[in-house]
Specification:
5-stranded parallel β-sheet; about 5% strand; binds flavin-adenine dinucleotide; about 450 residues; Rossmann fold; DNA Cyclobutane Dipyrimidine Photolyase, subunit A, domain 3; Serine Threonine Protein Phosphatase 5, Tetratricopeptide repeat; mainly alpha; 20 helices; globular
Length: about 450
């Protein structure tokens, strides 16, 4: 009997351009395994929206494998223990996987590597995190020089098709039933908006990419307009690896126009992983430690108003409601809403990071932490804390009227001129939680106290 090879999938739930699967399939019979690990200490548990996505993505992957005479084996528990047990059961000793950047996955890779012959492949990013170096040999901390260097290594290697054959093992090991994992919400079922907005899995990713390619050349002009579908909406598909970043790059790189702006956003994804690789605790600690002393407000009522989309700032509320309903928020609005929490409400960015982690279908440890620290001004490469975004200026500037109409129906009847800051609040819609000038003064005072303290 030929010993099977294990392919350990995590945020790389695809068959095409999957170096781990390709390598294993070329060597012998393959067992593709996904392990849900809620047990390893310090392993960040996936948020609720991500778990919804994961359920559907795993179902889709299993169907694709079955169409090729294979299947997906599901196991639950501490990933190193589970993989070692599966290897004993099946006679496998080698595991192929794509290298991941999250600190808990890097720990798991070390633990699995101690028990089994683990072969790690690149493919999660355009380049392996930490691999690009400055002239003095240091990994990059600032985006722009990182991007310039990255561009010099592009395009990435051409994506590869799914392996032509995936030989099954002589005996299939037992698998958990996906339904028993309880990844989907039950009472209440809050996922209706997500089902309407998304098709998790590689087919959904391919359809999104195909729909976006024709728009890529106008990305630079439309990407900041939340009322327009100007961005790719590939983020959850990229996070779960249902499509590789190399596939996205190759499909769009010759689109012309302002496509390079879009490619630069793929560069931000790599940059975020590169920062996390250097600072594994980036989601939990200020990169600029001076901010450890900032007097954040611990105001539960204000935090809940922000989470529920009831701040009285229509653009912020529209974004937070879009997030709650669909698990996604337009990037421009993410910046406005995040800045509002940190500067206007003076609430610690980590509270926002955790809320996004739980509610985003694209919740990504690296991208989320890097963007929150960037917005808060606490990051290695951050805007200045004292640059305080004015939501009431941003909203008309980026033509958000239709976006507000869609997500804040209480205001839908208002004309463009009034909707960004209605002088008379319709019944049921709150007054601003704090005035812009007052909020700005409070934030600057907290900042100056930090400087003098
Ligand atoms: C406070 C805050 C938190 C965020 N949290 C996340 C997160 O958890 N997960 C996440 O994927 N993105 C996050 N972003 C970045 C960005 O908002 C989303 O990637 C983007 O809105 C996804 O939509 P899209 O796929 O249409 O992006 P597009 O504009 O089409 O960009 C293409 C891809 O590039 C990547 N990308 C784009 N912008 C960024 C960025 N600023 N940083 C890193 N990668 C980027 C994404 O993979 C995205 O799918 C966050 C931004 C902010 C301001």
């Amino acid at each position: 009997m030929i010993a099977p090879l294990l392919v350990w999938l995590r945020q790389d739930l695809r068959l095409a351009d999957q170096a781990a699967l390709a390598a294993a399939a070329a060597q012998g019979p393959v067992i593709v395994v996904y392990v849900l690990d809620d047990d390893t200490p310090r392993h960040r548990r996936m948020g609720a929206a991500s778990r919804w996505w994961l359920h559907h993505s795993l179902a889709s992957l299993d169907a694709q494998l079955r169409a090729r005479g294979s299947r997906l084996v599901l196991r639950r528990g501490r990933v190193d223990t589970v993989l070692a047990a599966l290897a004993r059961e099946t006679g496998a000793s080698r595991v192929h996987a794509l290298a991941h950047a999250e600190p808990w996955w890097r720990n798991a890779e070390r633990a699995v590597g101690r028990a089994l012959d683990l072969v790690l492949h690149p493919g999660q990013y355009l380049v392996p995190p930490g691999s690009l170096r400055t002239g003095s040999g240091q990994p990059y901390r600032i985006y722009t020089p990182f991007w310039r260097n990255l561009l010099g290594h592009m395009p990435p290697p051409a994506p590869t098709p799914p392996p032509p054959r995936i030989d099954p093992p002589a005996h299939w090991p037992a698998s958990d039933a996906l339904a028993d994992w309880g990844l989907l919400p039950t009472t209440p079922d809050w996922a209706a908006g997500m089902r309407a907005a998304w098709q998790p899995g590689s087919d959904g990713a391919a359809a999104r990419l195909a729909a976006f390619v024709g728009h890529a050349r106008r990305y630079g002009e439309t990407r900041n307009l939340p009322s327009v579908s100007g961005t790719s909406r590939l983020s959850p598909h990229l996070h779960f690896g249902e499509i590789s970043v190399a596939q996205v790059w190759h499909a769009t790189m010759d689109a012309g126009g302002s496509t390079e702006v879009f490619l630069g956003e793929l560069g931000w994804r790599d940059y975020a992983a590169n920062v996390l690789w250097q600072f594994p605790d980036y989601a939990g600690t200020n990169a600029k430690t001076a901010y450890d002393r900032l007097a954040w407000r611990d105001d539960r009522a204000d935090l809940v108003a922000w989470q529920r989309g009831r701040t009285g700032y229509p653009i912020v509320d529209a974004g937070m409601r879009e997030l709650w309903a669909t698990g996604w928020m337009h990037n421009r609005v993410r910046m406005i809403a995040a800045s509002f929490l940190v500067k206007h409400l003076l609430i610690d960015w980590r509270q926002g990071e955790r809320w996004f982690w739980d509610t985003l279908v694209d919740a990504d440890h690296a991208a989320n932490a890097v963007n929150w620290q960037w917005t808060a001004g606490t990051g290695v490469d951050a805007q200045m804390f004292v640059r305080i975004m004015a939501p009431l200026v941003q909203s008309p500037k980026f033509d958000a009227a239709d976006y507000i109409r869609r997500w804040v129906p209480e205001l839908a009847h208002l004309p463009d001129a009034l909707i960004h800051d209605p002088p008379l609040r319709p019944a049921g819609y709150p007054a601003p939680i704090i005035g812009h000038v007052e909020a700005r003064t409070r934030a600057l005072a907290a900042y100056h106290a930090l400087q003098s303290g």
